[in-house]
């Protein structure tokens, strides 16, 4: 098994990193949905006890947030993919116009990393025989021409993650009787935030107590602030 040139990572490591990044993005998207929708419904609940108003505000927050996440992710990934494709096409043109010059350049890049000239030229020659485009891309840009992110897939994943997260406080709020709305929402959100904090720490291999506390404190703070704003706003209206 060989190391990906210029990265110090094995190809399988890069694939695993991509999967972990996608999982991390899904967890964060769900967390955004939980906090955003919970904050909105808590803010509206602070202003009014009208069940229809709370439900409509929660639904609007859920739909707007999920669509915003999807559009933002689509634009971001599309821009990144366009840039990566441009790099690939540019490097493909250079290889077609001057293959020997590009092979020498590849050798020089390895020499900059401390590889002897003889070894660098041997590596550059062997890699150029097998897949010169991939060899140059890994040294200069590190995109994989066979693993360009799909903007539609990324947008869909963000939409689904946010929606799944946002449904938790929304359903807890609208399905609970009046006196139980706040405690039911707080319990549901607390469990959901604990889960996302745990998953994010597991994916990132970081301290679980710290990650869980950070996520739960952030969510609790957001809900408390919007609830107080709702109370103040509701008092002003009345």
Structure description:
Its main location: membrane. One of its GO terms (cellular component) is endomembrane system. It is found in: Endomembrane system. This protein has 238 residues and is mostly helical. It has a domain at 18-82 and 149-237. Helix 1 packs parallel to helix 8 and helix 2 (51-97) runs antiparallel to helix 6 (151-175). The protein has helices at 11-47, 51-97, 99-112, 117-130, 132-140, 151-175, 181-204, 208-237. 33% of the residues are buried. The protein has eight helices and no strands.
Features:
disordered N terminus, transmembrane, 84% helix, 238 residues, mainly alpha
Ends: how far apart? 71 Å
Determine the strand fraction and express it as a percent band.
under 5%
- What would the average pLDDT be, to the nearest integer? 81
Q: What profile does the largest beta sheet have?
A: none
Q: Level of helix content?
A: over 70%
Strand segment tally: 0
Count of alpha and pi helical runs = 8
Order of helices and strands: HHHHHHHH
| Spans of at least 5 consecutive residues with low confidence | 1-12
What is the approximate shape?
elongated
Structural class: mainly alpha
Q: What Rg do the Cα atoms give?
A: 25 Å
Subcellular location: Endomembrane system
GO cellular component, one term: endomembrane system
Keywords: Membrane, Transmembrane, Transmembrane helix
GO molecular function, one term: manganese ion transmembrane transporter activity
